[in-house]
Amino acid sequence: MTVTDFVAPNHARAPLVLGVESSCDETGVALVTLNTQTGAPLLLGQALHTQVAMHAAYGGVVPELASRDHIRRVVPLLRQTLAAARVELADVDAIAYTAGPGLAGALLVGSAFAEALAFALNKPVLPVHHLEGHLLSPLLAAEPPQFPFVALLVSGGHTQLMRVSGVGAYELLGETLDDAAGEAFDKTAKLLGLGYPGGPALAQLAETADPVLVAEIKLPRPMLHSGDLEFSFAGLKTAVLTRVKAAEAEGGLTDAGRAALAAAVQAAITDVLVAKCIQALKQTGLSRLVVAGGVGANRHLRATLMTACKRRKAEVFFPELSLCTDNGGMIALAGLLRLTSGVLPKTAGGFSVQPRWPLIDA
Ligand code: KG4
Ligand code: ZN
């Protein structure tokens, strides 16, 4: 069945959408519907398996291992989700899956699974853009934002500022010219000898730092005053490498020195992200900011953004912490909102995935 053939259930029940995420190193399955009284999206159940432990031995994601693991996990995760939501597979009205961007093999697992399931159930499929999932995920929070808003998307592969006017109405305001914010966290964490994934480890270490030592470290804030909404984080990595090498020549970083450098990196990334968010609010005249993607879980970024937005009398919205990093809930939600708003995906889906895919083409 194609999406255009979809007819919303005419009984009291709102559409029930199954979401499947497999673009990188997390397999996520979830069921989302609408609250029939308030019309707000409702997460009925979700299950997630993270491959972090498996990839940790290699210091990063191994694509072939990722694909194989998605294959092993996806059916048990579906069963777990159905049980958590107390729903039968036959009750599902449509199936959404991440069609890109991401690792080709990993994406193909989710796509083949969703397409095959939809074919067997005679239900429509919705190919979803991974970043659309991230940027709509705060709509599942207890106090969701209203459209329009500025969205800061900060994940392992992307750093973008978008103007979001509604479902499927996304305008790119600016993005990174090189490394993404998550990549800057991960790469500098690696230089500091922290494990994979580096972001959460670096953030944790930064919380133990002595502020006096942190203040002594001067790191660049790339493109802070560029006057536009573009970012660049590659220089930061080089600055950290220089410091690590200098410390090595003098016997290596002490624990206190490592923690201070971690906090200085976190502060440098945060300062740039916050300044550009405020500039984006000024430029668009909007007063709502949504933060999404894995780096949105960073506590220092959250606190600094909240203070900066309060000063501007702007509101800032974050997804629930469990919905910040990759998950099936955000994909089910994006599918549900596409279906109910009538703004259907431009991509037909099928068994083709899009490892590289600009969000405005979704
Ligand atoms: O959105 P996400 O789960 O996956 C992608 O779509 O890329 O984001 C993963 C990124 C990684 O770079 C990870 O290090 C970063 O988010 N991350 C964090 C934190 N939690 C995850 N970075 C800084 N602080 C955190 N607490
Ligand atoms: Zn992601």
Kindly describe this structure.
The protein is an alpha/beta fold. It folds into 2 domains: 3-139 and 324-361, Nucleotidyltransferase, domain 5, CATH 3.30.420.40; 147-318, Nucleotidyltransferase, domain 5 (2-Layer Sandwich). Helix content is 42%, strand content 18%. It contains 11 helices and 10 strands. The chain has helices spanning 52-56, 63-85, 104-121, 130-136, 181-191, 198-206, 211-215, 234-249, 255-284, 299-311, 328-341; strands at residues 17-21, 26-34, 41-50, 94-100, 125-129, 149-154, 159-166, 169-175, 288-292, 315-317. The strands form 2 sheets. A 5-stranded mixed beta sheet has the order 3-2-1-4-5, with helices on both faces. Helix 5 (181-191) packs parallel to helix 8 and helix 9 (255-284) runs parallel beside helix 10. The two termini are 20 Å apart. The mean pLDDT is 94. 5'-O-[(R)-(carboxyoxy)(hydroxy)phosphoryl]adenosine binds at residues 24, 155-157, 182, 185-186, 197-200, 203, 293-295, 297-298, 325-326. Residues 24, 155-157, 182, 185-186, 197-200, 203, 293-295, 297-298, 325-326 line the site of 5'-O-[(R)-(carboxyoxy)(hydroxy)phosphoryl]adenosine.
Short description:
The chain contains eleven helices and ten strands.
Q: What keyword list fits this structure?
A:
binds 5'-O-[(R)-(carboxyoxy)(hydroxy)phosphoryl]adenosine, binds zinc ion, globular, Nucleotidyltransferase, domain 5, 42% helix, alpha/beta, 362 residues, 11 helices
